[in-house]
Amino acid sequence: MQGSFPFLTETDAAAAGEGAAAPPLVEIPAGHIAAIYISPGHNYFGRWGQMPGTSEIRQVTEVECVAGAGLVGDRFFKYKPDYKGQITFFAKEIHDEICDSLGVSHLPPSIYRRNVITLGLDLNALIDKYFRIQGCIFRGTSECKPCAWMDQAVAPGAEAFLKGRGGLRATIRQGGILRCDVKGTA
User: Fold this and answer.
1) With the C-alpha atoms ordered 5, 11, 13, 16, is the resulting torsion angle positive or negative?
2) Could you tell me which residues come within 8 angstroms of residue 169 by beta carbon, excluding any fewer than 6 positions away?
3) What are the beta bridge partners of residue 38?
4) Per CATH, domain 23-179 is 2.40.10.10
């Protein structure tokens, strides 16, 4: 099965069984990538009980997605084999809602330290799904669960607000270049 569907890993193929049909592939049309961010270092990850880090997060217009490894230039690139958060997604609509709800207007969507800011996608619907954006294939692995740092980075109440809508963690199954394709939104 893997030979017919190169985006499947050996683990995927073994789990599906010999002769199994390929899993469905959700095609995401153009017009949903509002912003892309990468950071060379961690500010929150692995820093419980410490002050947050100071690694910058850079907005880029495009990024190279490497299958099984992550985003070139990002802190999680080649972090560990089959890492479930090789790329992360966050909905611009959720950013707008939390800013309105908590009364903060000065924060950019990069504050959540997710890689890709989307517009018009139900990210939770992509958990456990294979999906293609601009030729790159991803597998949604889980929600990006918010952490206590969100109350400090955004505003008190942010962690609770983001439960169930903290974004999407995914693995990269077929690489390529991912580009911003929505103008003036992030």
Assistant:
1) negative
2) 84, 85, 87, 88, 140, 141, 142, 143, 144
3) 58
4) no
Per the CB < 8 A criterion, the answer to whether 108 and 98 are in contact is: no
Structure-block tokens of residue 126: 């992509």
Q: Per residue in 12-55, pLDDT tens?
A: 655 555 666 778 899 999 999 999 999 875 555 554 565 655 66
pTM summary value: 0.85
Are the CB atoms for 178 and 172 separated by under 8 Å?
A: no
What sections of 25-174 are H helices per DSSP? 92-102, 149-153, 158-162
> CA end-to-end span of the chain, whole Å?
40
- For 94-121, the pLDDT digits (tens) are 999 999 999 998 899 998 889 999 999 9
Calpha distance 33→35 (Å, rounded):
6
Distance between CA atoms of residues 2 and 102, nearest Å: 47
